[in-house]
Specification:
alpha+beta; three-stranded mixed beta sheet
Length: 515
């Protein structure tokens, strides 16, 4: 990082006071700023900016109570102060470029031009998402110096909304695995305990948001990558319905397993960011023909009185006891919201086989041709997937797709009885940052590097929208998230219930020790 004196100038306390006193929230009065008692010890005005809700920052910028330059400078100060502890942001846009973009946003506003819903707001971009002129490594030595000459659709939409890309957030190598480490940048650490993992593959993004280094971070999810890092870092993420957010460019336009989406510190900001990322894209054959704008509407307008909700039992999986008990203890919260909560779970028969088959198949397509020339630079996970992918036959895959269709139909039947399904994001607490993945849970050996994530990737196989929202802390102070799964394409309902739960618990207000 550079050490520009301008960036290190303290922001005036009066600026913050004016924002706090005069702010007119974008959302309803019940959706208040998510600062809690543990947040009151903010060390300086810049840090105060960094932990404001994104929607409140946007309102303050639009009403000229704060400038984009002040906002960007505050986040750069926070990155300078915190990032060395956690290693979340791995490639930064040069400071002079960032400040020039912020100045341009302020100048546009001075002349009455509003650039969009993210006008002058900084965002963190996942190091799997191509960004024009900004190094995109995929966490691989093969691409450690790769600078794309184009933006992927997610980054395009961020920029079209007026956002300023701060830089890239860390990922596992090629996004494989829910533990963020790679041979280019090393591991990203959990801000609540620096000896633990932050999850993955959107690990850098979740940590950046949790630590106030970015108000919003984009990500992607195949087996849980928009859910497990928020689960491990006490923030919010949603795996949208396939087609809700375009994943262009892609070789597999009809594939529904991998989806892009948002990460934020609270549900309101997560929904707001989804409103920018979502929307129809004719270049994606599965794109949902609906605008993203409805996700920017107030979330707290629905009553959940009488809504039937299913609470998981065990899914036939091994669990760390604290994870299981913490989520099941939330029954009383949902009952207090008026929900009818019953012990029930879908029949996830064949979900594991379906997910693994298509993951093997897609990874073989992506990396199979590289193995002869670059096999020594590709990790063991890729070698395993490619080897398994090459064993797949046409008749086997046709039967896999029939099983996956039957899985979807079973969930449709289940969802006719229960509008939402509640379960943990994964089966363990954050584990040692030097451990690549848990080898066993409750005495049960894990058969591969992903097996501890079945409670997340079963949902991916079915294709339902699902969010991770903070719900508890372990006795050792580690975050535990709750996964809320909704009906087909009901991303909005999932976010509304997540918001109601968040407001009833306030668990997300607890800041990490690293800050």
């Amino acid at each position: 990082m550079s050490s520009d004196r301008t960036r290190r100038d303290a922001l005036k306390m009066g600026t913050i006071a004016a924002i706090s006193a005069a702010a007119t929230p974008l959302f309803s009065s019940t959706e208040e700023s998510s600062r809690g008692a543990g947040d009151s010890a903010a060390q300086n005005p810049a840090e105060e900016i960094c932990f404001m809700r994104a929607v409140d920052l946007m309102d303050a910028i639009r009403s000229k109570r704060i400038s984009s330059r002040e906002v960007v400078r505050a986040f750069l100060q926070q990155i300078d102060r915190v990032n060395a502890k956690v290693n979340a942001m791995v490639t930064m846009v040069p400071e002079d470029e960032l400040m020039a973009q912020a100045a341009a946003a302020d100048e546009a506003l001075a002349h009455g031009r509003w650039l969009g819903p993210l006008h002058g707001l900084p965002v963190a971009v996942k190091d799997l998402h191509e960004s024009k002129g900004i190094r995109t490594t995929f966490g691989s030595p093969l691409h450690k110096n790769f600078v794309p000459d184009f933006d992927c659709r997610v980054v395009q939409r961020e920029k079209e909304a007026g956002a300023i890309v701060l830089g890239k957030s860390n990922v596992p190598e090629f996004g494989l695995g829910s533990q963020t480490f790679n041979p280019v940048f090393g591991p990203t650490r959990n801000p609540y305990d620096l000896t633990k993992t932050c999850g993955g593959s959107t690990g850098g993004g979740a940590v950046a948001v949790a630590c106030g280094m970015a108000p919003l971070a984009d990500g992607s999810d195949m087996g849980g990558s928009l859910r497990n890092p928020p689960n491990f870092c006490n923030v919010v993420g949603i795996r949208p319905s396939p087609g809700r957010v375009s994943n262009v460019p892609t070789q597999l336009g009809w594939m529904t397993l991998s989806v892009p989406g948002p990460v934020a510190r609270n549900v309101t900001d997560c929904a707001f960011f989804l409103s920018v990322l979502a929307g129809y894209d004719r270049h994606s054959p599965i794109s949902i023909d609906q605008p993203g704008s409805p996700f920017a509407q107030p979330l707290g307008t629905r009553s959940f009185q009488g809504v039937r909700v299913a609470m998981f039992q065990d899914l036939g999986l091994p669990w760390e006891p604290e994870v299981k008990s913490a989520v099941q203890a939330q029954r009383k919260v949902f009952e207090s919201l008026g929900c009818i909560v019953e012990d029930a779970e879908p029949d996830f028969r064949d979900a594991n086989e379906c997910f693994l088959a298509w993951r093997h198949w897609s990874t073989e397509l992506a990396f199979g041709d590289l193995l002869p020339s670059h096999g020594d630079q590709l990790n063991e996970y890729i070698h395993w997937h490619v080897e398994e992918g090459r064993k797949l036959t046409g008749p086997y895959l046709s039967r896999i797709e029939a099983k996956r269709t039957a899985l979807y139909q079973r969930l449709c039947g289940f969802k006719e009885q229960y509008e939402f399904f509640l379960l943990p994001v994964n089966q363990v607490l954050p584990f040692d940052v030097n451990t690549h993945y848990p080898r066993e849970i409750a005495g049960v050996a894990m058969e591969n590097y992903m097996a501890w994530m079945k409670s997340a990737y079963y949902i991916s196989a079915a294709g339902n929208p699902a969010t991770s929202v903070p719900c508890a802390f372990s006795t050792g102070g580690l975050p535990i998230g709750l996964q809320i799964v909704g009906r087909h394409h009901d991303d909005w309902g999932v976010l509304q219930l997540a918001y109601a739960f968040e407001q009833a618990t306030d668990m997300g207000k607890r800041r990490p020790l690293a800050v």
